[in-house]
């Protein structure tokens, strides 16, 4: 089994490294260099100097106002700082020459290995474990994120690795999480499941949980909290660790995981407060107002909040039904000599024909079910919802994270597929494995859906790089 995991890591690293393009959105390298200089603000805007393209072209940087009204020479990056901290030793060695894309490919490959390890904690046959790990590595948009490695995608790669490790630790601390019947905690059973009795007993159970912290669940919580300091919305996966992990009761699991998670999350809040004077980085709202006006064609509304329930309908449509451009007559500029018209039948169409394709991915995103149809394999697992703590916790985590992301004004543009799915993929992967196992194994349907997912993501990565996204 160890050999299989190592082989998956090596294979994934080769795929990610060989398919990655050259891009220069390396906000976190600039942030790491600022940390090394003892400050939170990066040098910005910096023009090209021959050795570096600079950062004057960066999006998602908020200039720091000067007292005298002169042009700003510093900027704030609103993203959580963990990816920059990961790059800190490399930035100290190589400065702006740090190749984030190579680091992303390596960390992404290691995440595939962690996924293999995590899936070993789910009671499935080896073929299901292998199929699920392969699906994650090259059948989801994690492939696109890992090979690209630009700022937004590097944050996903770091977060996914920690989230997978957190789930793996929780699973091994709780081997009975997937029992068919989700029985009440012993203390609740003794109280006859009476709500009043349960509430009166809660303070005592909470105090007991503080005295009996489960070390493995504490570690799972800390890893989970670290994932959230790379991608904030991962924190809404907390229900999983309330239902799955060490401790024996939901109160003990929650307290143990919560104490672990509060360390990195509390550090993030302290960082925001010290660097900006706010617990939540104000850069998000500033960039929202800028983008809502500048990109109104994408359906942004400047009079709505950055997280607004009114964004749900349009974003849900993209999430479930976003389709590629079929038989396009015009190919975007940047390919060859510019725009190409597909009006001559003699040219012939093809999936990888730059001048006249059958289909081209849409940069605003595409349906998760279209780009990774093997997610449909999780459906049989849903029958255990409410009976299995593992399934119930995973479903609640996926739904909570997805809803918060779908309320966000932007859904990840420019991208292939739906990149925000990386925020909940660690929990969804558990459901895929359980679903396949409940079907009796991988089977023909599993082979077809996983194979289709790999083929579609290969097509998407190829086109996204050809279009220089």
Gist of the model:
With 469 residues, the chain is mainly alpha-helical. It has 18 helices and seven strands. The protein is globular.
Global morphology: globular
Largest sheet: 3 strands, antiparallel
The class by helix and strand makeup works out as: mainly alpha
**What's the arrangement of strands in the largest beta sheet?**
1-3-2
Low-confidence stretches: 189-193, 333-339
Q: Provide the succession of SSEs.
A: HHEEEHHHHHHHHHHHHEEEEHHHH
Please give the alpha-carbon distance between the first and last residues: 37 Å
The number of helical segments is 18
Mean pLDDT: 90
**Rg (C-alpha, Å):** 23 Å
Percent range for β-strand residues? under 5%
Percentage of residues in helical conformation: 40-55%
DSSP strand count: 7
Question: Can you walk through the features of this model?
Answer:
The chain has about 475 residues and is mainly alpha-helical. The protein has a domain at about 1-25 and about 100-280 and about 365-465. Helices cover about 55% and strands about 5% of the residues. It contains 18 helices and 7 strands. Strand 5 and strand 6 form a beta hairpin. The longest helix is centred in the middle third of the chain and has 27 residues, at about 250-275.
């Amino acid at each position: 089994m160890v050999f299989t995991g190592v082989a998956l890591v090596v294979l994934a690293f080769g795929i990610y490294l060989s398919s990655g393009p050259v891009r220069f959105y390396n906000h976190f390298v600039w942030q790491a260099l600022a940390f090394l200089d003892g400050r939170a603000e990066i040098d910005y805007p910096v023009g090209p100097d021959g050795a570096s393209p600079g950062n004057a072209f960066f999006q998602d940087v908020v200039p720091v106002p000067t007292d005298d009204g002169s042009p700003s020479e510093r900027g704030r990056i609103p993203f959580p700082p963990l990816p920059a901290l990961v790059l800190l030793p490399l930035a100290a060695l190589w400065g702006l020459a740090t190749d984030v894309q190579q680091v992303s490919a390596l960390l992404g490959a290691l995440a595939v290995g962690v996924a293999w390890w995590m899936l070993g904690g789910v009671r499935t046959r080896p073929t299901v474990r292998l199929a699920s790990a392969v699906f994650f590595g090259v059948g989801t948009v994690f492939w696109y994120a890992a090979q690209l490695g630009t700022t937004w995608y590097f944050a996903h790669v770091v977060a996914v690795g920690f989230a997978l490790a957190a789930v793996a630790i929780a699973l091994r601390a709780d081997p009975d999480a997937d029992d068919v019947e989700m029985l009440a905690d012993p203390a609740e059973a003794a109280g006859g499941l009476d709500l009043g009795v349960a509430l009166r007993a809660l303070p005592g159970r909470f105090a007991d949980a503080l005295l009996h912290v489960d070390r493995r669940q504490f570690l799972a919580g800390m890893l989970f909290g670290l994932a959230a300091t790379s991608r904030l919305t991962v924190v809404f996966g907390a229900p999983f660790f309330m239902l799955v992990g060490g401790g024996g009761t939901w109160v003990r699991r929650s307290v143990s995981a919560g104490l672990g998670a509060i360390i990195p999350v509390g550090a993030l809040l302290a960082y925001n407060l010290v660097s900006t004077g706010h617990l939540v980085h104000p850069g998000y709202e500033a960039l929202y107002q800028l983008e809502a006006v500048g990109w109104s064609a994408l359906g942004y509304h400047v009079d709505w909040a950055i997280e607004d329930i009114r964004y749900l309908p349009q974003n849900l449509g993209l999430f479930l039904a976003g389709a590629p451009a079929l038989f396009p007559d015009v190919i975007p500029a940047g390919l060859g000599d510019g725009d190409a018209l597909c009006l001559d039948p003699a040219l012939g169409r093809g999936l990888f024909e730059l001048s006249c394709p059958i289909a081209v991915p849409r940069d605003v995103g595409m349906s998760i079910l279209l780009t990774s149809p093997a997610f449909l394999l999780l459906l049989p697992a849903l029958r255990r919802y409410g009976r299995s703590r593992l399934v119930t916790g995973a479903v609640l985590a996926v739904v909570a994270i997805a809803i918060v992301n779908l309320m966000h004004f932007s859904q990840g543009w420019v991208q292939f597929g739906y990149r925000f799915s990386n925020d909940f993929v660690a929990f969804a992967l558990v459901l895929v494995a359980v679903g396949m196992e409940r079907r009796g194994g991988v089977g023909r349907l599993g082979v077809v859906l996983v194979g289709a997912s790999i083929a579609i993501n290969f097509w998407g990565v190829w086109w996204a790089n050809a279009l220089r996204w």
